[in-house]
Amino acid sequence: MIPVDYYIALSAILFVIGTLGVLIRRNPLIIFMSIELMLNAANLAFVAFASVHESFSGQIFAFFVIAVAAAEVAVGLALIVQIFRTKKSINIDELNSLKG
Amino acid sequence: MSADLIVFLVLSLVAIASALGMLFSRNSVYAALFLVLNFVTVGVFYLLLGAPFIAMSQITVYAGAIMVLFLFVIMLLGTDELAPSKALPAQKWLAGLLAFILAVESIYLVFSRAQINASVTSPDASLNTMDSLRKMALELFNLYLLPFEVTSVLLLVAMVGAIVLSKPEKAEQAS
User: Rounded to two decimals, what is the model's pTM?
Assistant: First the structure.
């Protein structure tokens, strides 16, 4: 018997680590991985609540989040590759104009 | 201290350590491998929570497909170290402070409204049968049929978008 709050606290900690990664890292790939970590933390909270309330809705939402994350990664990585081709750099500080 | 709690604490230690490893490793490949470890740990958490189907999709989609994609792009772009930023010198400390405040705040909120009697019972064998999976599938394809179809369209759009974005720019010169 584990209180559900432990799971939610763990999810919050993972989310904060993801936020910190978005804020302090300069490599867009790592920033992207941090976003995945944050999505994962939200999923953990969904599944924890689904398990407490004995309903499948939370699990199904987690499933949808996984599918949307897959779509997001495909488009985002294509964008990063394209930015690298144009700018010859992926440092986030040099990507400050929308012009190609 | 029950066996469940010990498993939970050890696993959460692994999850937090691998997330921190991803955050602070200098090499992007190491960061990606730390993230794979984190995803697998979260998959084991799903098993503990009695969600075997989500656990398996977590392992195949996240730790499998998504991270392989990440590793491909890392190999493509090179793993060279980026020079530290000069734009905002205080950014790291400010970000650390803000993240600390966010962590304290969220954990305070979680435990100030603690539901003492809401606890996760360890899953029994009945959750790993076909019957449990059938119940979830019935809910997915009855109540959530429209979101399911929208997700499939979204995946198609993402696929086309990724192909269009990564196409070489020959089409522009021809037109």
Answer: 0.89
